[in-house]
Amino acid sequence: MSIQNGVLVIISGVKRYFSNHILGSLRFRIILLVVLFGAVPALIMQAVILNSYETRAVDVRTAEIQNQCTILCNQLGSRGTLNGRADESIQTELVQMSNIYDGRVLVIDNNFQVEEDTYDMDIGRTIVSADVIRCLEGTGTSRYDEENAYIEVTSPVYDPSGEHVLGVLLVSVSTDSIEDNLAVLTGKAAVAWITMTLVVLVLAFLLGFVMVKPFQRITRSISAVTEGYGDNYLKENAYTETRALSEAFNRMLGRMKVLDDSRTEFVSNVSHELKTPLTSMKVLADSLLTQENVPVELYQEFMGDLSEEIERENKIINDLLSLVKMDKTANTMNITSENINALVERILKRLRPIAAARNIEVIFESFRPVTAEVDEVKLSLAISNLVENAIKYNKENGWIHVSLNADHKYFYLEVADSGIGIPEESMEHIFERFYRVDKSHSREIGGTGLGLAIARSAVVMHRGAVKVYSQLGEGTTFTVRIPLTYVM
Predict the structure, then answer these.
(1) With the CA atoms of 236, 238, 241 and 246 taken in that order, what torsion angle do they form, in degrees rounded to the nearest 10?
(2) Dihedral, CA of residue 295, residue 300, residue 305 and residue 309, to nearest 10
(3) How far is CA 389 from the centre of its chain?
(4) Cα dist from 186 to 134, 195, 197, 217, 419, whole Å
(5) What are the TM regions of this chain, as residue ranges (predicted)?
């Protein structure tokens, strides 16, 4: 049983290899298609040509016999009767026709009696057949018996007036010569087909190897990506398909390189942002340690600075945790039907005291009641960050205008402010993590550079979009569009 099981395992492995590596190979399929489209049509054409030759040869032979029968019928009918043996000249022509076409000629009168027989076998006997009866009625016949390999032709013999049928001229001719020629042609055609098939097979193998080469080069190029990103992107223009594949691969590789660079930059930024407060705290602590008899006032000032730096570190860590939590829970949205008007009111109620500290007026304008399917926690985080951002980068005695509207498919939230604005060259980067337009000003107001990245992530997770419009020194407007119905 163990040997049998081993054999079965080997057979199964061979089948899998053949199925995965041979049948699944593009080269094999190209070879198979070329062979099929080259050899099979040739085989069909061979059969059609040979069949056409046989049909044509039989038709030509039949036409020749019918012509000869017409001539002999005219000579036989000139006597006016078929009673008795024909004269010697007509008998000679009958025998000559029999010899030429390797057949047998019978002359039958209107009483179905055989008057002449080139084989001298049936003279005086009665022959009644459907073809003879039809011919006596004035309709000549011709028939090819493929199984027995002969052609039979009947032709009516008319009297000199052409009104009465005196008898029938029946000719049976062998088609052995046609069959012999057909056999020779079949043999030659088989040799030609085999030769052609071999040539097609060789060409198919060559074509298969040549056509697959561009894909092999693509495979090597893709494999080389594992060694790192380089500037030598894929450029395979052998076919339209390989060109399209190369362009798609290059776009993907470019995107991967951007993501890799972004990840590296993100790690660097995180390290820098976390290191800066730690460095400040270390400097403050070292200053206290190196001084003797530190006054209470200075001690309290340094401890206040340490507390600020710790708070800054805490903000950065909390924002990072928010981003990480969003990334992890992107596929586990807690979707519920929420009153968006009430949600925005709750957020603004919490943030108005912060805005009031800088004498910034916060106005909320709702055009209609809005109910939507959202993740309340994530959407609140997005709206809070947008409004907080508007407060942080606003001017003293400024204003913030929040508006809510909806149509049959989306709801729209707009946060506009009278703040410092965003330079045009920075517009495409503001949603990047740790990107800040004015780093020094951001540090003064406690910005971490993660607020807009968090807001955008939350909006995108709701299948929404966020856009920004801004003019330097005149203010900024963020527009959020989110579907009323969450689509998985």
Answers:
(1) 10
(2) 130
(3) 46
(4) 37, 14, 16, 46, 94
(5) 30-49, 190-212
Q: What is the rounded distance in angstroms from the CA atom of residue 306 to the CA atom of residue 314?
A: 12
User: How many residues are present in the chain?
Assistant: 488
Would you identify the CATH topology of the domain 228-328?
Answer: Helix Hairpins (1.10.287)
Tokens coding 164:
């009465």
Structure tokens at 438: 């004015």
CA distance 461 to 466: 12
Tally of CB atoms within 10 A around 355? 20
Q: How far apart (Å, rounded) are the C-alpha atoms in residues 451 and 381?
A: 9
- pLDDT at residue number 110: 85
Pairing of strands 361-366, 103-109: unpaired
Domain spans of the chain, in order of start: 79-180, 228-328, 331-483
Backbone angles phi and psi of 181, in degrees to 5: -65, -40
* CATH number corresponding to 331-483: 3.30.565.10
* Cβ atoms within 10 Å, residue 104: 20
Mean pLDDT of the chain: 79
Nearest Cα neighbor of 461 from 371, 339, 333 is 333
Q: In CATH, what is the architecture of 79-180?
A: 2-Layer Sandwich (3.30)
> At 449, which amino acid appears?
G
**Which residues pair with residue 142 across a beta bridge?**
153
Q: What is the pLDDT of residues 311-349, one digit of tens each?
A: 767 766 776 676 666 655 555 678 889 999 999 999 898
Q: Is 283 helix (H, G, I), strand (E, B) or coil?
A: helix
Q: What are phi and psi for residue 158, nearest 5 degrees?
A: -95, 155
Mean pLDDT on 65-80: 84
Q: In the 8-state DSSP scheme, what is residue 126?
A: B
First to last CA, the chain: 54
What tokens does 159 get?
């009297």
pLDDT at 477 over 50: yes
Query: Average pLDDT for residues 266-289, to the nearest whole number?
Result: 67
